[in-house]
């Protein structure tokens, strides 16, 4: 065979291999910070949940070892970390009318697998660990309806209708929620009007039916229960908005984080700062991981770290990758911060020593 024919043959083989590789994962999407959740496991371990591809990876921050624990592309429903005993519980949609439950060690070793015959997984679910004489439970959200199930999973033990009717909006719908154990449920709503979106939070005690509405937000919010408190935090990139839409005013002090006591409903801690609006990208980003509050300044490419009660741990650190990396964890014992970067198309973990 001539060299010219060999070259053409090699090129054809290369094209075929490339084509086969491309079609092997037709639904694959590049992972992104926005569609990745960070779940703290231990001082040196986190789980990255890539919702774009339904992929959960266990990451050892000290060795950069990444172990996939989701095994297939079935929808990830929930991932819960237990402290005592130390276990990771992963729930996924199954192929039939059940959901799969996988229990793993902190090193990613499978301890057990089971099927739960919960036919209606709704829009979203959360698994709750057993406590004392109470068995494991699963909260299921279906639009504005919340139902709490436990074995034998046939009918809910508690139900709640979260519908809100407000004539000042075209629609009000459930956007997010958190539940870590009976009786407290926190719900984020998106209220849509003409050329505008507002966000607010309702907390409810499912036992007493006592409700509290928190509506003083000027941008989108995230919520997360932590022990006996509810954390509410915001992120915002300054941008043009319709005149009637709520928008943070750059000259004002922004309340980027607040901590609400579950029982009293009283705000017990908060973080505020002013973020200038300049250049192409400015604003702030807030994350709440392992009782620590990360607040990044998009304009200055700096970040600071606080306890959930508001005391400062670190101030004005350089934000790696010009604010495009995602904060994962800070280990105070070795004074090292860890960040996630997807620039290469896959997860890359980088450690930074703090002076």
Task: Explain what the structure shows.
- It is a single chain.
- This protein is mainly beta and 355 residues long.
- The strands form seven sheets. Strands 19-22-23-24-25 form a five-stranded antiparallel beta sheet, with no helix packed on it.
- It is globular, with a radius of gyration of 23 Å.
- The chain has one helix at residues 3-24; strands at residues 36-42, 45-50, 55-60, 65-68, 76-82, 87-93, 99-104, 110-116, 124-128, 137-142, 145-150, 158-161, 171-178, 184-193, 196-205, 211-214, 221-226, 229-234, 236-237, 254-261, 267-273, 283-289, 292-297, 302-307, 312-318, 326-331, 336-341, 348-353.
Describe the protein's topology.
Blueprint: H1 3-24, E1 36-42, E2 45-50, E3 55-60, E4 65-68, E5 76-82, E6 87-93, E7 99-104, E8 110-116, E9 124-128, E10 137-142, E11 145-150, E12 158-161, E13 171-178, E14 184-193, E15 196-205, E16 211-214, E17 221-226, E18 229-234, E19 236-237, E20 254-261, E21 267-273, E22 283-289, E23 292-297, E24 302-307, E25 312-318, E26 326-331, E27 336-341, E28 348-353
Antiparallel strand pairs: 1-2, 2-3, 3-4, 5-6, 6-7, 7-8, 9-10, 10-11, 11-12, 13-14, 14-15, 15-16, 17-18, 18-20, 19-22, 20-21, 22-23, 23-24, 24-25, 26-27, 27-28
């Amino acid at each position: 065979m001539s060299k010219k024919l060999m070259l053409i043959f090699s090129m054809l083989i290369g094209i075929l291999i490339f084509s086969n590789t491309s079609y092997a994962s037709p639904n694959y999407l590049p992972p992104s910070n926005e569609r990745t959740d960070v779940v703290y496991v231990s001082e040196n371990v986190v789980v990255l949940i890539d919702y774009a591809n339904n992929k959960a990876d266990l990451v050892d921050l000290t060795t950069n070892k990444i172990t996939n624990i989701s095994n297939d592309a079935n929808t990830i429903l929930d991932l819960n970390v237990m402290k005592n005993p130390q276990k990771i519980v992963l729930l996924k949609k199954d192929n039939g009318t059940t959901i799969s439950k996988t229990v793993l060690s902190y090193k990613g070793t499978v301890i057990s697998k089971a099927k739960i015959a919960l036919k209606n997984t709704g829009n979203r679910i959360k698994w709750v660990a057993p406590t004392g004489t109470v068995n494991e439970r699963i909260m299921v959200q279906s639009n504005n309806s919340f139902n709490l199930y436990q074995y034998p999973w046939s009918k809910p033990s508690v139900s709640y209708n979260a519908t809100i009717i407000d004539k000042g909006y075209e629609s009000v719908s459930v956007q997010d929620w958190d539940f870590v154990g009976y009786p407290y449920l926190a719900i984020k709503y998106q209220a849509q009007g003409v050329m505008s979106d507002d966000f607010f939070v309702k907390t409810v005690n499912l036992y007493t039916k006592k409700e509290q509405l928190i509506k003083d937000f000027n941008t989108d919010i995230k919520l997360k229960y932590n022990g006996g408190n509810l954390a509410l935090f915001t992120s915002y990139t300054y941008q043009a908005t319709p005149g009637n839409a709520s928008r943070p005013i750059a000259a004002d002090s922004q309340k980027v984080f607040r901590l609400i006591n579950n029982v009293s409903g009283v705000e017990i801690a908060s973080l505020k700062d002013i973020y200038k609006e300049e250049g192409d990208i400015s604003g702030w980003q807030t994350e709440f991981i392992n009782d620590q509050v990360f607040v990044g300044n998009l304009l200055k490419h700096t970040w600071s770290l606080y306890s959930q009660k508001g005391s400062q741990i670190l101030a004005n650190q350089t934000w790696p990758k010009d604010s495009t990396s995602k904060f994962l964890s800070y280990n105070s014992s070795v004074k090292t911060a860890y960040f996630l970067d997807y620039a290469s198309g896959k997860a890359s973990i980088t450690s930074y020593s703090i002076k």
